[in-house]
Amino acid sequence: MEWKQKPISVLEEGWTICIERRRHTRYQLRVRTVYAWRDKGKKRLREAGFTRDISIGGLFVLSSLTLPLGTTISLEISLPPVEPGTPGLRLTFDGAVTRNVKSNVDAGFAVAGDFRQHMSMIEM
Question: 50 and 28 in contact (C-beta within 8 Å)?
């Protein structure tokens, strides 16, 4: 599982160079997502939000909600149709919360995990 790591700043010949330590490139993508998790009482909860960025090994969800670190979470990401009149693509992702951000600009949480090839558990 990928953990978000801050870039390393290196000073070289008077220039500051930032080195990204993530394993996968993240892409800015703001699309609707529905996510589900279990609370401490094992009750299944669901919420909706938007992604801020996404990679093959993780994503960031914009949300005022914070989940405890390590919370197992399933997400269904809805991509818009490529051509008018065609259905959009739905991706499912399973992972764990790795970071919470409380901010006026980008409040939410980061999730590291994997895309799933099977039916979404959110709908079941």
Answer: no
Instruction: Tell me which long-range contacts 93-97 makes (C-beta under 8 A, separation of at least 24).
Output: 93/59, 95/1, 95/58, 96/1, 96/70, 96/71, 96/72, 97/67, 97/68, 97/69, 97/70, 97/71, 97/73
pLDDT at residue 14, as a whole number: 61
- Domain ranges for the chain, please list them: 25-116
| CATH superfamily name and code, 25-116 | predicted glycosyltransferase like domains (2.40.10.220)
User: Which pLDDT value is given to residue 64?
Assistant: 86
pTM: predicted TM-score of the whole model, two decimal places: 0.74
